[in-house]
Amino acid sequence: MKKLLLYFMLLLNGLYIFAQQTGNIDFTRAEGNIAIDPHREEVTGEVTYFFDVLHPVDSFYIDARKMTFDKVKLNGKEVKFRNDNSRLWILSAQDTSQQNRLTFAYKAIPEKAMYFTGWGLEEGTRQVWTQGQGRYTSNWFPSFDDVSEKVEFDLFVTFGREYKVLANGNLDGIEERDSLITWKYNMQHPMSSYLLALAIGKYDMIRDVSRGGVPMEMYYYPEDKDKAEPTYRYTKRIFDFLEKEIGIPYPWQNYKQAPVRDFLHAGMENTTLTLFADTFMVDSVGYNDRNYLNVNAHELAHQWFGNMVTARSNEHHWLQEGFATYYALLAEREVFGEDYYYWKLYKSAETLAARSENGKGEAVLNAGAGSLTFYEKGAFVLHRLRETAGDGAFRRGVRRYLEKNKYGTAVTSDFMDEVEKISGKDLSGFTDRWLRDSVFPREEAMASLRKNEFIRKLTDFQEGKISRKKRDELLDSDVYYPLKEDIIMQMNRDSVAVNRSRELFRTGDLHVRQALALSLDSVPVSLKAEYESLLSDPSYVTIENALIKLWMNFHEDAAVYLDRTAGIRGFTDRNIRILWLALALSSPVYPSGSDTTVFRQKKAWKEELTGYTSLRYPYETRQNAFAILRRLGLLGDEEMLENLVKACVHRTWSFAQSSRALLKSLLENETYVEEVRKLIPKLGEKERKFLKGIIPE
Predict the structure, then answer these.
(1) Which of 20, 488, 611, 647 sits at a 20 to 30 Å CA gap from 76?
(2) Tell me: the pLDDT tens digits for 17-44?
(3) What are 526-583's pLDDT values in tens digits?
(4) All domains of the chain, ordered by start, with CATH?
(5) What domain of life (predicted)?
């Protein structure tokens, strides 16, 4: 009990200091001149902070995790300081004053928030990138964990000349010196420290300009030129739409986007510099299956909702994620149409209602709520609020909320009060029902969604209210494709549906044909030709499913199917190539030729497949390769086991977890225990520490 009380007192004291400093000292601008050594994974630099003292203080601090400091000066004079490994404390009483300067030199070896990819490998992608939200920028740059402390950051970054350095703000110039280049970035407005960002790598770029004159830079890997246009398709249209819809001009100097390897999230809305997982880089075929448009619009919307106006605490996190999700949906509606918008909301409503009815519902204003609540329930709140308050009142309320809190922080009442004032409606009941209650109002949500004709037809079908005749009419109509997919999935459980399937194959509708590819496990001979035609569809999902099902159902023609798909890689994770290798290795009649020729070719294919477990490939590719190798029973050699152990400590949680589960299953066999023990001297500290916890001495 005493320990619990002590912890509680320390927590309260920390929160008090947090609030006390933000109210007493205003840090206005930072100049950082840093150099990054990717081989040592080290950052060194000199920083100047400009600040005003609003009320007298005995001391003040800057968050700085596990850093060392030197040359600490306040207004040009050396000052006493204390480094407690989490903060740099300036031990000097300050009276009310303005335009003070704190300067210091520092060194950091960041354990997180800055990530170094590929520098220990002889080949492959080499990058440095950051992720401040949830990881704390103060791991690599002395800054502020409190989102309320907003600073204008200007960064000078020195790095090897063969790489591009991207950072927040405008690139004012570069300075070349021998093998190094210093990149000089300048910002004009303040932001929270978690939005400070860097991306360093080898990039080419597409330039564009918004209707309002904002420069846009869209980066891609030099080898991905064919993916640039499909990935960034509709970017200018989305940008122009959001500016018009939100009603506030884009609040920053420019907008840059860049893919990075093994990113921790789908995307991150760093101010003027969105970083996103390079798995979203797709060619024109991949675009049909999974595209970047939603993430593109979501991160762009954050430039207003989150970056310009930041939620003051986690309780109000929906002001960032709910708004970004909602405005991304509006942008997608602009591109894909009204039915798409309602379909996405319907899927969210079904998920939220199911969780709510299972007792797992969460209030939007619950600081500990999960992503589904902040993102999707938050977006639904805005959809219903717009209907309740009226379109004009909603849009004026959003605009006034942004204008009043520009470059500051806000809470939910700051927004709701504006909408209530402008609409003239009492929204207290709405707030209780939609923001404070953990129960999802299913009936109200569905009544709203059923205003859309497509949703009415979809729900009528799912409730069994549509006759077979009407079902056939819908399949022949131009109704939005998710309803056709649902009908096909149900229809193909019916053995009399073969003739109808044949007719649907001939429609040429990409989504209908994909639903047919997914709906049948056993392909009847009468549909063999139609299924074979799927191997030519512009969809990697369709091709992948058609290939495996054809191979399983018509094994005698395996060589034909493998020949037709031999040159297809698929998505960034090589989904089709890895599947192809597995099928080729498992086919006794493939390839043709002498025993020696077949042996050599199979050996080469196995080496290619096992090679995809290497650290030089994205974690999604490695995950696919490990899964296939496990099914083939080929997880055995030393190099693969070493790659698997290293995967167990990967920074991406889902990949690390799946790798740990795989390793754990292997270690049930004593032979693997001994093989892994032999690896220990070759492994790094993180890997050895991990193994110590799962392998007995």
Answers:
(1) 20
(2) 445 687 899 999 999 999 999 999 999 9
(3) 999 999 999 999 999 999 999 999 999 999 999 999 999 999 999 999 999 999 999 9
(4) 1-107+125-202 (2.60.40.1730), 205-296 (1.10.390.10), 309-451 (1.10.390.10)
(5) Bacteria
